Amino acid sequence: NSGTEADVYISVYGERGDTGSRQLLRSQKFRKFLKGQTDIFAVEAVHLGRLYKIVIGHNGLGSGNGWFLEKVVIKDPITELDYTFLCHRWLDQGQDDGNIARELAVTDASVLPGRQELELKREETWAAEKWKFQKGNTLQFYNRLTHGFICLNPDSRVDAFGDKKNKYGKVFFMWLYA
Q: What pTM was estimated for this model as a whole?
């Protein structure tokens, strides 16, 4: 459920101005914004010079509108430069921080070796997920073998009986696969 059916918009900012908000309409794929899929769009605009940020989001409409965005890569046909904007976050009113739009700064992938990019992803993932571990939250881990839950309670108690029902008010699910 990390794809979206909502209308997605992008604004690209460079040293010479911005594109304004543009809806991403025609992907090279039959259905756009599916889980695990890379979509490619052509966006016509005046040359903006060196790019430094984008704002990307969706209108929040439609069933299954939450979206997990890994990254955006913009290829400049004039300079033949690639600009990478790492996200690794949800654009979803019910996930992460509830925002359906993100402002992303350019990441110069050419100067980021693989290890540094991996560390950046780890830091961004923790920034997006740490709210789940705040005081007072109950975590439930689903056990695929027993089809029950292991609960970590705010008072440090662990309920490992595999209860199949959600008996807590505010619960965050984490699916673990072995």
A: 0.58
